[in-house]
Amino acid sequence: MTLLTVSNLSKRYDSKPVVNNVSFSIDSGKCIALIGPNGAGKTTILRTLAGLLHSTSGSFQLGDMKTTGDIRKYIGYLPQHPVFYSWMTGREFLVYSGELALLSKTDANNRADELLDKVGIFDAKDKRIGKYSGGMKQRLGIAQALIHKPELLLLDEPVSSLDPIGRREILTMMEELKEEMSILFSTHILSDADEVSDELLLLHQGEIVESGSMNTLRQKYQTAKIELEFQSDIGKYKDKIDQLSAITNSYIDRNVLHVTATDILKARQEIFTAASGGYWPLTSFTLNRASLEDMFMKVVNT
Ligand SMILES: Nc1ncnc2c1ncn2[C@@H]1O[C@H](COP(=O)(O)OP(=O)(O)OP(=O)(O)O)[C@@H](O)[C@H]1O
């Protein structure tokens, strides 16, 4: 079932478009990564959905609710740089957030304890936030975003500022949370997106340039990099390789012939057929699939 539908959302600052006609939808229970380089417009989209910014045009709808006022009750938001009162304890902060979300004092206290446990910082509940690690602060920020039991959780760069341990903690937590709610999170790191998201939205200069599951995108943009070494005459074999139909590019670097191809199976077959038929003095054949970053570059350059 579709939870969120975003239709032709645009945002301009003065005359500068920073989000341009963005449309997408999120099904219930899915985790979607909004991925793009710095300045692509990720924060602008998330802040608009959180009700903190007005779009210049376009709209979004959550379930069958019509007005923004209703929608905000069902959306939790963790900003890119959450601000905490460092002198408060984690528990005090969550009770305070609960009261801001119009929970009664008793409900805010109960919910704070429940969330401290859920995000794994219950033992540190009475410590001042100033003494929390980056990972603990991010957990507290997520707990704050969950205080009113949202159906959609928006996380702006939830792991970018964390060390590898903090990053692992939060990614694992997101895996758990996505069992209970839909998540839309921004990142500029493809491997993080790959790890927890069901689908990617690739944002470039305010526009969604590609979307789909990582597997679908891998298949679509997959390229192979093949490295060949020869006992002798590498230049002569470069010329022969360039004539093969599956090869898109080749160059020689430090006595290794680097070859690029889109159809990996065909390229391998053509190279082996030519090598055995022509008695090539081939000493090594190495196949590397393109990295996720290569895929992203390919998408934004098309
Ligand atoms: N208040 C503002 N006034 C003018 N321009 C702005 C404002 N806020 C953001 N921008 C511009 O909008 C563009 C998109 O910014 P946004 O913060 O949404 O990108 P982002 O993808 O989240 O990048 P980052 O990863 O760096 O946070 C940038 O060029 C930014 O400079």
Describe what this molecule looks like in 3D:
InterPro entries: AAA+_ATPase, ABC_transporter-like_ATP-bd, ABC_transporter-like_CS, DrrA1/2-like_C, P-loop_NTPase. This protein has about 300 residues and is of the alpha/beta class. It is about 35% helix and about 30% strand. The strands form three sheets. Strands 5-6-7-3-8-9 form a six-stranded mixed beta sheet, sandwiched between helices. It has a four-stranded antiparallel beta sheet with strand order 11-12-10-13. Strand 1 and strand 2 form a beta hairpin. Adenosine-5'-triphosphate binds near residues 39 and 43.
Strand content: 25-35%
Q: What's the helical proportion of residues?
A: 25-40%
Figure out the total of helices.
11
Mind telling me the C-alpha Rg? Answer: 25 Å
Across the major sheet, the strand order is 5-6-7-3-8-9
Distance between the termini: 32 Å
Question: What ligands does this structure carry?
Answer: adenosine-5'-triphosphate
Uncertain segments are none
Number of strands: 13
- How confident overall, as mean pLDDT? 89
The backbone outline, from C-alpha atoms, is elongated
